[in-house]
Amino acid sequence: MLLLLRRAWAAAASRRGTRWCSLGACCSYRLRDAQPDSLHHLPVHPLWQSPLTIPGGTRQSPINIQWRDSVYDPFLKPLKINYDPTTCLHIWNNGYSFLVEFDDSTDRSIIVGGPLENQYRLKQFHFHWGAINEWGSEHTVDSKFYPAELHLVHWNAVVYPTFEEAVMEGNGLAVIGVFLKLGAHHEGLQTLVDALPAVKHKDTVVEFDVFDPSCLIPSCPDYWTYAGSLTTPPLTESVTWIIKKKPIEVDENQLEAFRMLLFTSDGEEEKRMVDNFRPLQPLMNRTVRSSFQSRHLLNTEVQPKDHAEQIMP
Ligand SMILES: [Zn+2]
């Protein structure tokens, strides 16, 4: 009896541990059983250590995308991207990431289609990344982290007069998420990487004109989409997320260039800009839709039957 009680207590403690894991219960199995020990304790940026930055919303981001749980939606259209490279203005180190900002006073750089009812204007793009290659992305796929994630932020200028107003509304923003994986050198990204030393310190801005960020978006049209939030304050639940299925490849030196940036201003004690991602948030009552049919489902539901029919005596 005592043994049973002890076992029950241990199981409850284990569940409590899972709940407190910053990665959420959904991914605890894989982390506990398949990942190196360091992933038990992902670094948490000071921004996310304060209870003030934990709102009680129902559609917070980022999330873990469970491939098998995503639902194919045949009515999702292809996403059309049309950026004018001359709308690119500058790069800004804001002390949390670096932002490449665009002139959004007209409809010159826009996205349309996909899950969106309106046309959305490009405002800025930025990245999130880790101190090492084992983590860094905000979203995960089947609990897998990528070393970095690109976010291209657009706003609904059809419905709202300003970006600031769009940020507060459910259909105000559309963010394209692109995972970065370690691989081949990325020529398009290198133009950006070459400019980074000029914005090493917080609050530095450097002119960066004529850049087309569509070179950072994989040509594969497949994406997941869900209703979520900003992953930095004010964390408003205003984002239609469009997460590209296929990552882009970048090389180690390019990721290292990100890690050379600083959270700190000139004259302060230097703190490397790394691990600038928000912890995963619960899916709650949401469905992740996919623009493509899941190979995972085909594998589990169709193939075994086909295979059985093909068995020869
Ligand atoms: Zn972001």
TrEMBL record:
UniProt xrefs under CDD domains: alpha_CA_V
Catalytically driven reaction(s): hydrogencarbonate + H(+) = CO2 + H2O
Cofactors (names): Zn(2+)
EC number: 4.2.1.1
Gene Ontology terms for molecular function: carbonate dehydratase activity; zinc ion binding
InterPro entries: CA_dom, CA_dom_sf, Carbonic_anhydrase_a-class, Carbonic_anhydrase_a-class_CS
Protein family according to the UniProt entry: Belongs to the alpha-carbonic anhydrase family.
Keywords recorded for this protein, A-Z: Lyase, Metal-binding, Zinc
Protein name: Carbonic anhydrase
Function, as annotated: Reversible hydration of carbon dioxide.
GO CC annotations on file: mitochondrion
Lineage: Eukaryota, Metazoa, Chordata, Craniata, Vertebrata
Species, as recorded: Mycteria americana (Wood stork)
